[in-house]
Amino acid sequence: MSQKILSINSGSSSIKFKFYQMPEEEVLASGSIDRIGGKNSEFSFSAHAEKSKIVKDIPDHSSAIQEVIEMLLTSGIIHNKSEIDGVGHRISHGGSYTKSVLIDQKVEDRIDELSVLSPLHNPVNLIGIKAFKKLLPDAKEVAVFDTSFHHTMPEKAYLYALPYEYYEKHGIRRYGFHGPSHQYIAERSVELFGKEQTSRLISCHLGNGSSLCAIKDGESINTSMGFTPLAGLVMGTRSGDIDPEILPFIEEEFDMNSHDVREMLNKKSGLLGISGISNDMRDLEEAASKGNKRAQLALDVFVHQIQHYIGAYATDLNGIDMIVFTAGIGQYSPTIRAMVCSQLGYLGVKVDEEKNKTNALSIEADDSKVKIAVIPTDEEIIIARDVMEVAGFSD
Ligand code: ADP
């Protein structure tokens, strides 16, 4: 029997969704709502091979979800909202959850508690859950955590060198994020290239948020984000790793409180902080090509960090069979991919410049010892598959 499943991926001011016929994995409709909470929110919707875009004020996430259901009804994709059998929510921080779970009050409470660790995302994820519960009381709701895929990391990779009781009593450790994306890349790579070619894989998710994951035979063994999604690589507006002593220094020196510092690290740092121009890679590449030195510096620091993580993960994996680039920058920026690979010759990594320019699936040169691929990620299908499994629809 077929089910209709909605995958929901909520950000702090946006919602992306895909509506599937499962288990066929047919996308019936998809879309996104951006700038929720402000004036002129943008709702893009695609169904029956037609795309539409409307601009209207959508004040909050609950209203955004109502808009999505209304659009599914008015476009004739469903005739009654009871046709939606299940909803999968991408949840940012799952703490110690090692897999996706059916949402009940206990799960909701836990997601709420974990909001302290992911203040930008867990609260809006929770609003989504509550809104659907009200709108679709009979649908199965499933939580798919960004952190779960990384539960296979060994202790030595997730433990911080802090007093042990912080880990034991308060769960302060590396969790890692972008789980559904790295999982999709791991599974899709095997489908496309086979197990042997993908045994020691580095997945590079480079978007507004960026993280790398070392994947050994399909399992995460290390990843660059940490206790929160602020850690690791330089990102659009997030700092990534910095010397921890900088934080008390800034607080004391500039009389900033922890809220101000958190804002600065999450929203004013990264590519935007270094360049002073933009957090958007397209803007920075353009500015750098016209000679803007700080834009070039932002690119250089971004790439340098990625190269360091790849070197570290080559050690964790004892060599690399394959590197995959994904997400906005990974998928569409030949410049960044070429820059990253330019210092990896010692690992046998060699890019074919022509293939790289066209964002081809395989971009390694014939004599490269490492396979290099460009694969669009698909977090929503991982969410929909998990709904099928966890809700018992696959039985
Ligand atoms: P999010 O993390 O919000 O899902 P995306 O995966 O969509 O973000 O990635 C957004 C990033 O991808 C932005 O920095 C954007 O500039 C970059 N990007 C998109 N297209 C291109 C391109 N053609 N060249 C370079 N960068 C690109």
UniProtKB/TrEMBL annotation:
Mg(2+) binds at residues 9, 379. Keywords: ATP-binding, Cytoplasm, Kinase, Magnesium, Metal-binding, Nucleotide-binding, Transferase. The active site is at 146 (proton donor/acceptor). Pathway: Metabolic intermediate biosynthesis; acetyl-CoA biosynthesis; acetyl-CoA from acetate: step 1/2. ATP binds at residues 16, 205-209, 280-282. Gene3D superfamilies: 3.30.420.40. It comes from the Bacteria. Its main location: cytoplasm. The keyword ATP-binding applies. Its cofactor is Mg(2+); Mn(2+). It catalyses: acetate + ATP = acetyl phosphate + ADP. Its EC number is 2.7.2.1. Substrate binds at residue 90. Transmembrane segments: none annotated. Mg(2+). Can also accept Mn(2+). It is found in: Cytoplasm. Belongs to the acetokinase family. This is Acetate kinase. It comes from Pediococcus claussenii (strain ATCC BAA-344 / DSM 14800 / JCM 18046 / KCTC 3811 / LMG 21948 / P06).
